[in-house]
């Protein structure tokens, strides 16, 4: 079910979504956060703790649950948890085309510092 959230929210291939989940679950400095609605997971994100920062990544909400504040609720929780995990800065990545996420992060006090394009090429 967790891989399905990543797959549907980001349009990731199932195997990439599983890799994300395994990374977040199997590394001691990575923490996975899941938001539930009626006992079913609808949102998730992760945080990786290093000496320099807590890097929040993979924040997503199932498409049919977007627009109801669940992403904001998860991000507020992720920020609070990050502050408990480290006294360093919090960083995050967002798709440059995801204006709703940009707006949410700006409203939560994040400031864009760099812009990175993501590219993909099939090897098959």
Give an overview of the whole structure:
By secondary structure, this protein is an alpha+beta fold. The chain contains 4 helices and 4 strands; from the N terminus they run H-H-E-E-E-H-E-H. The chain has helices spanning 2-10, 14-26, 70-85, 99-107; strands at residues 30-37, 40-49, 53-61, 89-92. Strands 1-2-3-4 form a 4-stranded mixed β-sheet, sandwiched between helices. A hairpin with a 3-residue loop joins strand 2 and strand 3 (53-61). Helix 1 crosses helix 2 (14-26). The longest helix has 16 residues, at 70-85. The mean pLDDT is 88.
Highlighted features:
single chain; 124 residues; alpha+beta; 4 strands
Topology, pairings included?
Elements: H1 2-10, H2 14-26, E1 30-37, E2 40-49, E3 53-61, H3 70-85, E4 89-92, H4 99-107
Parallel strand pairs: 3-4
Antiparallel strand pairs: 1-2, 2-3
Helix pairs in contact: 1-2
Tell me, what's the shape?
globular
> Total number of β-strand segments?
4
Terminal residue distance:
26 Å
Overall average pLDDT: 88
**C-alpha Rg (nearest Å):** 14 Å
State the gist of this model.
The chain is α+β, with helices and mostly antiparallel strands. The protein has helices spanning 2-10, 14-26, 70-85, 99-107, and strands at residues 30-37, 40-49, 53-61, 89-92.
